[in-house]
Inverse folding.
């Protein structure tokens, strides 16, 4: 059974809207599109590259797909070669024209579609696609969350964990690493069940 990885970049206050550029997602007149660019460094680049080892499919929301499809087919080497070669699946309620080679519409039944993908592929990565990711969080339809947290506060913008996230436990699966510019990479695995609770007073007395 294949695994679904979610790869996201977020500010310290949880904003993950339009990290890559001003035109990526200007919804609600978001003024900070491209906030990630000044904070990228060699360590983050190496972390991103290493996280793609074993990736054998891309799963994208419609907006992210359109951005990728307009850019990566015209690039070469490294990530471009990987993305252009991989099968790409698009989650959309509409019926868009998917002109990027190797692209397929996921279908209206998300749960059934993801089950089929897990039978076909070992490591499926969802990159960005923040609106679609909310569905994955709400339905617990992911296996690993790869989160890069950057040392800035934006106040407004779409959040990683928007309203509707269900109570979920995660397990840190490797040491947290900070880059020279302060980006902190955190990799988590989904844990079955809901978060435990306790009484701090009882812990203090133990």
């Amino acid at each position: 059974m294949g695994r679904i990885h979610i790869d996201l970049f977020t500010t310290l206050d949880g904003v993950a809207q339009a990290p890559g550029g001003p035109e990526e997602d200007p919804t609600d007149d978001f003024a900070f599109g491209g906030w990630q660019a000044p904070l990228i460094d060699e360590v983050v680049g190496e972390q991103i590259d290493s996280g793609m080892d074993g990736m054998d499919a891309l799963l994208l929301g419609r907006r992210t797909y359109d951005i990728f499809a307009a850019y990566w087919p015209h690039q070469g080497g490294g990530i471009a070669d990987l993305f252009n070669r991989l099968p790409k699946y698009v989650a959309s309620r509409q019926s868009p024209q998917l002109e990027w080679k190797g692209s397929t519409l996921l279908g209206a039944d998300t749960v059934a579609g993801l089950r089929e993908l897990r039978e076909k592929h070992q490591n499926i990565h969802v990159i960005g696609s923040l609106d679609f990711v909310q569905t994955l969080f709400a339905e617990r339809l992911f296996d690993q969350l790869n989160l890069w947290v950057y040392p800035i506060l934006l106040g407004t913008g779409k959040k990683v964990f928007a309203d509707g996230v269900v109570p979920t436990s995660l397990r840190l699966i490797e040491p947290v690493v900070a880059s020279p510019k302060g980006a902190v990479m955190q990799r988590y695995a989904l844990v079955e069940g809901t978060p435990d609770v306790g009484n701090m007073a009882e812990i203090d007395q133990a």
About this structure: The chain has a mean pLDDT of 92. The CA atoms of residues 144 and 189 lie 4 Å apart.
